[in-house]
Amino acid sequence: MHEDRFPGHKFLPYLLIAPSIAVIFIFLIGPFGQSIYKSFFVSTPFGTRTIYVGLRNYIRLFSSPDYLNSVVVTFKFAARY
């Protein structure tokens, strides 16, 4: 029968990967969530006041001909190279 040299070692892999998960959350997932949250607001030029606008920012973005043109150009460029 196999004898455990290190009692309680079944949690060791989780302990070893915990710093990596913390770094991923702090530097990737956290800022991504914060940017999604802030995209539902509009702020004054100096950031002294924020106003909730909901999906208006996204509606304005996706109805902009400049944005749609940039998406088309990006896909054409990516398909070519």
TrEMBL record:
It is a multi-pass membrane protein. One of its GO terms (cellular component) is plasma membrane. Its main location: membrane. InterPro entries: MetI-like_sf (IPR035906). It is found in: Cell membrane. The keyword Membrane applies. Keywords: Cell membrane, Membrane, Transmembrane, Transmembrane helix, Transport. The chain crosses the membrane at residues 12-30. PANTHER family: BLR7065 PROTEIN (PTHR43005), SPERMIDINE_PUTRESCINE TRANSPORT SYSTEM PERMEASE PROTEIN (PTHR43005:SF1). This is ABC transmembrane type-1 domain-containing protein. It comes from marine sediment metagenome.
